[in-house]
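task queued by scheduler; priority normal; single chain, no ligands, no partner chains; default sampling; output format set to structure tokens
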Amino acid sequence: MNKAKKLLNKYKNQSKKIKIIIFVIIIFAILFSLYMFKTSRALRVRYIDLEFEDLPKSFDNIKVALASDIHSGLYIPTSHIQKMSDMITENNPDIILFIGDYIYSAPRWFKYHNKKNIHRLIEGIKNLEAPLGKYAVLGNHDNYESKIDVSNAMHSNNFKMLDNNIIFITNDIGEYISIGGVGDFMTDDVKFDLATKNVKTNDFNILLSHEPAAPLAIAKKEGYNELIDFFVCGHTHGMQISLVPMPLIERLNKNRDYPLTTIYGNMQSGKTKIYVSSGVGVVLLPFRLFAYPEIVIATLKNKK
């Protein structure tokens, strides 16, 4: 009997320990999830200064705001988009560049498009202004859901869509810069010939591409990187849930002539400076880890 009682007590003690362990794991999972959710809403402004030999002197110190992957919808409310817009406005940019993926109604395989997310997007960005204009390209999620709805939403907010297109901005003394954009690599054609049309090697050109890796490789292979001074991308979310902090990811490319990885950050390919944004919103899960959402304020300087 004593032996049986000891076994019973041992079983009870082990069962109690297991319950305590399970309870601790559940509490940790809840707290960790709350932390990742809070991180997903902790929108930051990153400031960078970049020098370019081709930038005309009259455009020296021009301020450019960059934002990508807003993903209005499933997890991102209008208030988060308005917060982004307020942070951009506070910095008084000369140009605003959006780099695709403006909506997110559901994971792609559901093939679901909620038009309310378009209205959330419009409401969130309606007060954005920039003296030299607002420019954008589409991302894969925009094309998955409704290219027409998203394009119309951007047009209604006076954004010029630059998918496989280019625009030249000329100032009062006749100096100019150009901004081109290519279609999303996953869902559209990537036409660098159209995005760099009439650009000379000593002109200053900004290139918008939602997806970084493949278009960057195409530009290098086909020689278009000789015409591109600043290559701006998004799409990656900085991995969104990463095991490595973004500054460490960025350091992998420090002093390299061509990026080792195009997950996040400030990097270079020959004479072309590159920035891959971690984005504003989220997909699949409303969480981020070591990959804070951001907008970027880039001050472009004449190097001469």
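post-processing summary
- The mean pLDDT is 93.
- The longest helix spans residues 2-41.
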